[in-house]
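I had to read the description of the data format several times before I understood it. In essence, backbone conformation is discretised, so a fold becomes a row of integers matching the chain in length. I therefore recommend that a typical entry be quoted early in the introduction. For illustration, here is how one protein appears when written out as sequence plus structure tokens.

***
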Amino acid sequence: MNPRQPESLASLLNWRFCWRLGWMLRAALFCIILTTPALATSATASLLSPPDTSSPRATFDSFRRLTDQIAEQYAAYREAPSAQRQQTFLRAVEQGRKLMDLSNVPPAAQHEIATATIIWLWEIVARVDLPAAEAIPEASDYTSDGPLADQPPRWRLPDTGIVIARVEEGPRAGEFLFSPETVASARSYAELARGLPYRRSSRIENVRDLTATALGFSGWMLPPHLIERLPDWARRPIAGQVLWKWIILVVSLALTLVLLGLVLRWAHRRAWDARPGTLLRHLSAPLTLLLWMPLLRRFLDDQVQVTGLVTAWPDYLAELTRVLALIWLVLLVARWIPEALIAAPRRNTESADASLIRWVARVFALFTVLGLVFTAAQDLGIPVYGLVAGAGVGGLAIALAARPTLENFIGALNLFADRPIRVGDLCRFDERHGQGWNPVGTVEAIGLRSTKIRQFDRSLITIPNADLAERNIVNLSVCERFLLRQHLPLRYETSADQLRYLLATLRELLHAHPMTIHTEEYPIRARFLGFRDQALTLELRAYLRTTSYTEFLAIQEDIMLRVMQAIQQAGTGFALPAQTLYMARDSGLDADASAAAEQRVREWAAAHELPFPDMDEAQRKRITGTLDYPPEGSPEADRG
């Protein structure tokens, strides 16, 4: 036997089936892209007039006429499958949706559920005895003077669970439609009715063909004569759907995942930045889902005709994928727009705060995503708004648990509205549960929940926005001038004349200094405040000509050193707190060392080399790195 030939007829059929199935799937997915617009705009299929639903009799008669029309259209399609005839047949089936109360069916699945229900009801009606038309009530029978005025406006088909009831509220109020309970139970009723023989003839020999539990209805891309040639095992029903449809469904989903994986791999070859090309590249994945899933959904609904337990799966999957793709798009755009605005070369850095732009983008993305999630949940049949409205105690508990998050969010709104600080500002803030001020730091980020401040020691403080909004914040970056304010404690041995001399010297010093301001609005002050514990207290107060905190520290340093000299010249000194008296023989200060230090300072002054307020740049470069580290004698120094 030739090894390349199949060993049996069964293997030959399997091989031919796999080859044909693969060919059909490729051709179908390719053709649907080309033919979907034509199908949607076909003008040859005439629209059916809306059915009469004014009474149970009118609704039931409309249903029977509709099933006859469906049978005629299906028979014509079976004789010569084509896109036009299939579209005409599907439009006839779609009319059944107008006969049903779908209020309990999720919007995303109403089309497929209505299509399947009309076939299931048809199967039941074709196998049971029908009452005479006169036995079915009219709308007038339920009026105040009608024979059924004391009964609910509903009618049940004898010996069945099929009920036609009047809709009491909503856009279709007053119409008689197949009840929501009938729609929900139609499939189980049809399964029970299949044990009964057909009681009336139809152009369709077996309505069961349309429910896909036998051979399975398919679209014109998968014509019936081709499906009939499939092996018996491929036409075996599983969970209400034939096997070949399960195969196409699984292969289609796998193909979708492969396509998405390839697009993601291509999109992430470029690192994320603010260029438009990068955004478009990363948007390719969600855009692929938005374009591909409607095509796949149309292919599975119109061509494969998914039925059984997974009747509405393509609709649910398409709706879920659409929402996820839109959320993906929103998050990518919300991430890219702030970076693009901040990185714009012609944008004035003072016109918009980078943190504010990012914050607004995040808030917009958050609310957009929540809106999409709530809308999708409603379409998928999850009563989100009802759950939120009726949460009761659970909702109160959630609200209480979310209170800190909401407070921080409102705190962020207050920070951006009042703008006490911006990203990059140098600030300090008071302790809420202590005394004094926290170390000065630079604002790095203002987020939805917290603000990050980098201290001078490079440590990072994270403060909740609600907490920060209640603190006293000093923004040093926006100071138009800095205030020098110092309290000087002097020894009680200081005489009154010494105080007068010192105060006069300090006032001359503050007025003479070129970096102080003296106006009526900004006066200079050097005053004796009074007697404090263990000291006579003097106050110095002056505004300095600087807007830089670093320069302010340098000027303050210079003034304080001059103040020390003035105190020494006045013959007094600083008071030191003392509570314990130690008696010892003190050798005193080293007079030679003190004289040498003072002589060195005089030499610096004579040579104009005093390193105040800052060290000369040439000297800084000359001494940089001249010390030995690790110091001599340490293990690390010996190794070097």
Notes: DSSP finds 19 helices and 14 strands in the chain. The first helix runs from residue 9 to 40. The radius of gyration is 44 Å.
